[in-house]
Amino acid sequence: MLATVAGDAGLGDTAHQFLDEGGADAFGALLHFERVCELLRILGVPFEINPRIVRGLDYYTSTVFEVISTNLGAQNSLGGGGRYDGLIRTLGGPDISAVGFATGLERVLQALSKQEGGLPLEPSIDLFLIPLGSESLTRCIPLLQRIRSAGIAAHMDYSGRKLQKVMRYANDCKAKFVTIIGENELESGIVKLKKMSDGSVREVPFDNLLSTLLVRDI
Asked: Which end of the chain is more exposed for a tag (fewer CB within 10 A), N or C?
């Protein structure tokens, strides 16, 4: 399935033709594609579905995409890529899914200059979000966007790995704070904000997490 991250449109006849020709694999790909579109809508990312996008290599599965800028005129493509679930296995590695993209550095720099966007001097993570389950992931994705938009460097785990491994990864990333958000946290509306330097934990209302981080001036 193909999309340009750039309005929103339905798949219509294209989806029916795709399902008729592809069978069960096509149905799974369509469900994945609809999930991607759902998360883009949650994030408020404008996009349009374009069944005519073509990538030059045949190892892509499910979704391919192109990212464009509205500030660069006719040469407006910043990059493109897609998902490839079987490529690593084909190359002799483990059977794991992957997504990748290629981008033009000059185009990105041009877009940043027109947006007056700066580059970070030192990579650092203020907050590491760990969602447990699909519902938590859906709730955390727009939260992550709001936190980043407020100028706070934040990262989130998408892997679904065991909690111990994810916590170890957050520590390796030198995250200042970590919060785990699962079913209990969503039901109670309270999350625990852990300060990694000393292990102290503070309970914070889910809806006040961003304001708490801003007040703490991390």
From this structure: C
Q: Which is it for the CA torsion 22, 27, 30, 36, positive or negative?
A: negative
Q: Identify the CATH number of the domain defined by range 127-215.
A: 3.40.50.800
Model confidence over 145-184: pLDDT tens digits? 999 999 899 999 998 889 999 999 999 989 999 999 999 9
Question: Facing residues of 81 across strands?
Answer: 65, 101
Distance of alpha carbon 88 from alpha carbon 141, whole angstroms: 27
Neighbour count for residue 213 (Cβ, 10 Å): 21
The length of the chain, given as a count of residues: 218
Amino acid letter, 55: R
User: How far is the C-alpha of 188 from the C-alpha of 168, rounded, in Å?
Assistant: 26
Residues 6+ away with beta carbon under 8 Å from 79 = 66, 67, 101, 102, 103, 104, 107, 108
- CATH homologous superfamily, domain 2-114: Bira Bifunctional Protein; Domain 2 (3.30.930.10)
pTM above 0.70, yes or no: no
